[in-house]
Write a structure and sequence with these properties.
About 40% of the residues lie in helices and about 10% in strands. The chain is mainly alpha-helical. It has one domain: Jann2411-like domain (Jann2411-like fold), CATH 1.10.3300.10. Strand 3 and strand 4 form a beta hairpin. Helix 3 packs across helix 4 and helix 4 packs across helix 5. The protein is globular, with a radius of gyration of 18 Å. The mean pLDDT is about 90.
Length: about 200
């Protein structure tokens, strides 16, 4: 994985899209869809969708073994566990036992194995590259995040109606919004209108 290359373009079912960087690949993965009210944001409809997502940088895990429907189901279970754990940590609450168990189970599988290319300057993943390995790598990243120094910087967007979670990797630790161009600007606009109405 390449450092500082996280982030994906998220699409709103009502139209529009924006770039959201969750600050960690595992958290980017948590925003590929969801259950219940978040089902409208689902992007992993079939195994090929998961394969395509994993192949994108920074993970850049191009599957050499086709993703199965079972692996897709396992991916969605892990995704939900990462989402639940991140939200619990952002709220300074205890992590759900089921989420912890799911993350640990995925991490127990063999991870992706880095392999130096013949030129000695670039690296890829040693084949065979399977979805379970990619999921293990994501789960292990989440474990490092939850147990490491950035754990206290896992936050939910400060907007009232935005559930996106991210790890604030900025040096001052002052990030509040999922994206400045989305919730940050909306907040600025609302604050500006509020000032105008009180000034008049």
């Amino acid at each position: 994985m390449r450092a500082n290359a996280t982030g994906r373009v998220l699409h709103d079912p009502k139209g529009g899209s924006f770039r959201f960087d969750a600050g960690a690949v595992c958290l980017d993965f948590a925003h590929t869809g969801g259950e219940g009210q978040y089902a409208v944001f689902e992007t992993l409809h079939e195994p090929a969708d998961l394969s395509e997502w994993l192949a994108q940088p920074p993970l850049a895990a191009v599957m050499t073994v086709p993703v199965t429907t079972r692996e897709l189901a396992e991916a969605k279970t892990l995704r939900q566990a990462i989402w639940d754990a991140a939200h619990a940590r952002a709220a300074h609450g205890p992590l759900p036992a089921e989420a912890v168990a799911t993350i640990n189970r995925a991490a127990a599988e063999a991870p992706l194995i880095p392999e130096l290319a013949a030129d000695g300057t670039t690296a890829g993943w040693a084949p065979p590259v399977r979805a379970t390995q990619a999921l293990s790598t994501l789960a292990r990243e989440m474990i490092e995040l939850l147990s490491g120094p950035l754990s206290e910087r896992i936050r939910e967007c400060a907007s009232d109606n935005c559930p996106l979670v991210f790890v604030d990797t900025s040096r001052p630790g002052a990030r509040r919004w999922c994206a400045m161009e989305r919730c940050g600007n909306r907040h600025k606009l609302r604050a500006h209108r509020a000032r105008q109405s009180t000034d008049s």
